[in-house]
Structures are given as structure tokens and as C-alpha cells.
Write a structure and sequence with these properties.
- The protein has two domains: about 100 residues, 3-Layer(aba) Sandwich (Rossmann fold); about 130 residues, Rossmann fold (3-Layer(aba) Sandwich).
- About 35% of the residues lie in helices and about 20% in strands.
- The protein is built from ten helices and twelve strands.
- Strands 2-1-3-5-6-4 form a six-stranded mixed β-sheet.
- A hairpin with a 2-residue loop joins β5 and β6.
- The structure holds 2'-monophosphoadenosine-5'-diphosphate.
- 2'-monophosphoadenosine-5'-diphosphate (ATR) binds next to α5.
- It catalyses: shikimate + NADP(+) = 3-dehydroshikimate + NADPH + H(+).
């Protein structure tokens, strides 16, 4: 029997075990998926133990997505570009690291094309993963904006995309097709990183936050007629790509979406 895991600290909130167990069940795969709480200074020992215990693959979450790289044997382009790993596959006795966060999110954005005009709000680790995925997908019309411009400039330079300060963005806001909110603002406050956005009905607002299910950023967008998508799409999208790397099967995303909503509601 194969088994998989997710390593994090904290880990109790993770919905990944429920998600992958459901997918194993739906696809009649005899495997299980366990959450593992890892002490801050025990990541290396944990990875060594997983190999000894015959683990077939694992996910990595906060705060280990960057540190894990040091303990892997190979990195896929998605992980090398993002500088972070969220999915690891055991292949020929080696740990191979991938990053499915950005690609999983993009896979769930409808109508995303090579001419889409994309705005990213924020310039931290989450933004980096998404810019890397956009670059991997060949989506070039990308702009980064951030409270601290220098951080956005650095990221923009690295991936050869645009940088604008918040007031420049505000002046041309409705020219973007997709706006992705990548900061933690709105997770435990009624704040939004954009003060006066002018949404239109042809725009799509994406937030990587899923709790609360509708941040102020998304609420404003919805009230002004834009289409909205919360962080569940990214969460489930990254899981689906990880599952596919492990099993070769693209899992169904509808049932797990319903299950999570039931538990949250
Ligand atoms: P993560 O790895 O989760 O992306 P991070 O690297 O700390 O976290 O990045 C956090 C992002 O949220 C940054 O873009 C940060 O903006 P600054 O670079 O200006 O710090 C943004 N952020 C955090 N708190 C914010 C706030 N109150 N208003 C606007 N942006 C905020």
C-alpha cells in the first residue's frame, strides 16, 4: 500500500488529507495520506525518515517550502523558477521537488490566454510562485504592484515583467483582465491592499485567501460586477496537480469543493 504525507508547522488546519483521501477513494487507489507536524529544526530528519519508511511522495507547506530544497535530490523547472517546493515525488530512489501552487491556480483561471493582462498585488513568496508560473505558461503581460515598490521592482526585474506603484495601477485599473491578490491582507482583517479599485464586469478578481471565503477585496469586486474566485481554487488546483504527479490521474475537483464548503458552512 502506498502512502503520502503533508509536512507543516502548524498542520492541523490542512485540508490536504481529506482532499487526497477522497481522490484515492474516487479512483480506487489503495493509498493513504497523512498530516505530519514537523518541529522547526527537524525537517531534514523527517525527510530521511520518510524515505526509510517507503513514502511515495509528500506535500510541503508553511514554513518549509524553501528550506525543503536543501534536502531534495532534483528540482523540476516549476520549483527552480519559484524558488520553493510544495510537492515532492519519490522517483528511482530520489526525492524530486515540484511547485504546483502557481500552476494549480492558473489551471483554474478560466479564459487565461497569452494576451491576458494580469495584475499581481503583492510581492512576497506567494506572488513569486505565481509570477514564475505565469512566466512558465508564456503569459507576458504581467504587472506587479506592492505597498513597498522596491520589492515589486526586484521581482518584476527578475521575471522581466512590469512594476507599477499603487496610484499608477489605480489610474489604469480597468484595463487588466485578471487581478490576483497575493498578500495576507484580508485574512484576519477587513482591509484590502487596493484602496479604490474600479472593477468592470469583464474583469476577474482572484484572491489566494480562502478563509474568510470572501475578503473585502473580493466583495468590492463582486459588488462592482466583476467575476470572483477565492483561494479554494488555488488550494484544490495545487492538490490536483500533485495528485496527477503521483498517480498520473487528473482528479475530479467538484466533489471536494462541495465537501469543503459543507465543513466551512
Ligand atoms: P508570503 O510569503 O505569504 O507572500 P511575505 O513574503 O511576507 O508573505 O509577503 C507579504 C506580502 O503582503 C508583501 O507583498 C507585503 O507587502 P510589503 O512588501 O510592502 O511588506 C504584503 N503586505 C503585508 N501586509 C500588508 C498590508 N497591511 N498592506 C499592504 N500589503 C501588505
Amino acid at each position: 500500500k502506498k502512502w503520502y504525507a503533508v509536512l507543516g508547522n502548524p498542520i492541523h488546519h490542512s485540508i490536504s488529507p481529506k482532499m487526497h483521501d477522497l481522490w484515492f477513494q474516487q479512483n480506487a487507489i489503495d493509498a493513504s495520506y497523512i498530516p505530519i507536524f514537523v518541529e522547526r529544526d527537524k525537517l531534514q530528519e523527517t525527510v530521511v525518515s520518510l524515505a526509510l519508511l517507503g513514502c511515495s511522495g509528500f506535500n510541503v507547506t508553511v514554513p518549509f517550502k524553501e528550506e525543503i530544497i536543501a534536502y531534495l535530490d532534483e528540482l523540476d523547472a516549476s520549483a527552480a523558477l519559484a524558488g520553493a517546493v510544495n510537492t515532492v515525488v519519490r522517483r528511482d530512489g530520489k526525492w524530486v521537488g515540484y511547485n504546483t501552487d502557481g500552476l494549480g491556480l492558473l489551471a483554474n483561471i478560466p479564459n487565461l490566454s497569452h494576451d491576458s493582462r494580469v495584475l499581481l498585488v503583492g510581492a512576497g513568496g506567494a506572488a513569486r510562485g505565481i509570477v514564475a508560473a505565469l512566466s512558465q505558461k508564456g503569459i507576458k503581460d504581467v504587472t506587479i504592484t506592492n505597498r513597498t515598490s522596491e520589492k515589486a521592482s526586484r521581482l518584476a526585474q527578475e521575471f522581466e515583467v512590469n512594476e507599477m506603484n499603487l496610484s499608477e495601477v489605480s489610474a489604469i485599473f480597468s484595463t487588466f483582465d485578471v487581478v490576483i491578490q497575493t498578500t495576507s491582507v484580508g485574512m484576519d482583517s477587513l482591509e484590502t491592499p487596493l484602496s479604490n479599485p474600479n472593477w468592470t464586469s469583464s474583469m476577474l478578481a482572484v484572491d489566494i485567501i480562502y478563509s474568510p471565503p470572501e475578503t473585502v477585496f473580493l466583495k468590492q469586486a463582486r459588488q462592482q460586477g466583476a467575476t470572483t474566485m477565492n483561494g479554494l481554487s488555488m488550494l484544490i488546483g495545487q492538490g490536483a496537480l500533485a495528485f496527477e504527479l503521483w498517480t498520473g490521474i487528473q482528479p475530479d475537483q467538484q466533489e471536494i469543493r462541495k465537501t469543503i464548503f459543507r465543513h466551512e458552512g
